[in-house]
Design a protein that fits this description.
- Helix 2 (about 40-50) crosses helix 7 (about 150-160).
- The protein has a single domain (about 5-160), classed as Uracil-DNA glycosylase-like domain (Uracil-DNA Glycosylase, subunit E, 3-Layer(aba) Sandwich), CATH 3.40.470.10.
- The protein has helices spanning about 25-30, 40-50, 60-70, 100-105, 120, 125-130, 150-160, and strands spanning about 5, 15-20, 75, 80-85, 95, 110-115, 135.
- The chain has about 170 residues and is α/β, with parallel strands linked by helices.
- A four-stranded parallel β-sheet has the order 3-2-6-7.
Length: about 170
């Protein structure tokens, strides 16, 4: 199996809510963009939280990253690298966890860490050690079909409110 390396974090000094996924999908690694799979609800959820601010087109990923930072959001993953066939979290092997404390030092306004899904939440003990509130979000993945988009949006809304973003 080939060792895969994740994406750089999207954060800035204005980041108040850090959303942690598990590890980028095959589509995300190929495109070098978080949540690149068109069926993932991630970008739809964010647009629903801030409908007054149109989300830039998929083709302008740099503008999407700027949009995320302007909302006070940060995006990263719990795993820096791993071995995996396909995109399922259940296929992740020999994973190396990211250095959360180093990242948090670059985000002085950070208020809440939110884990996007169960695999990410397995590492809540690492993020809770940073002394910030930790939230478990329903996965935005299309594999999480038991949660409707509206139900996901409501849970994500609560995390954004807790971080002072809404």
């Amino acid at each position: 199996m080939t060792r895969l390396t994740g994406l750089a974090p999207i954060v800035g000094p204005e980041t108040r809510l850090l959303v942690l996924g598990s590890f980028p999908s095959v589509a995300s690694l190929r495109d070098q963009q978080y949540y690149a799979h068109p069926q993932n609800h991630f970008w739809k959820i964010l647009q629903a939280l801030w409908p007054e601010f149109p989300l830039p087109e998929v083709s302008d990923y740099a503008a999407r990253c700027a949009w995320v930072r302007a909302r006070g959001l940060g995006i990263w993953d719990v795993y820096a690298s791993c071995e995996r066939q396909g995109s399922l979290d259940s296929a992740i092997r020999d994973a190396v966890v990211n250095d959360f404390s180093a990242l948090v030092a670059t985000c002085p306004q950070l208020k809440v860490i939110a884990h996007n899904g169960g695999e990410s939440f397995k590492h809540a003990k690492h993020t809770a050690a940073l002394g910030l509130p930790v939230v478990r979000l329903p996965s935005s993945s299309p594999a999480n079909a038991s949660w409707s988009l509206e139900r996901k949006r409501a849970a994500w809304y609560d995390a954004a409110v807790q971080a002072g973003l809404l």
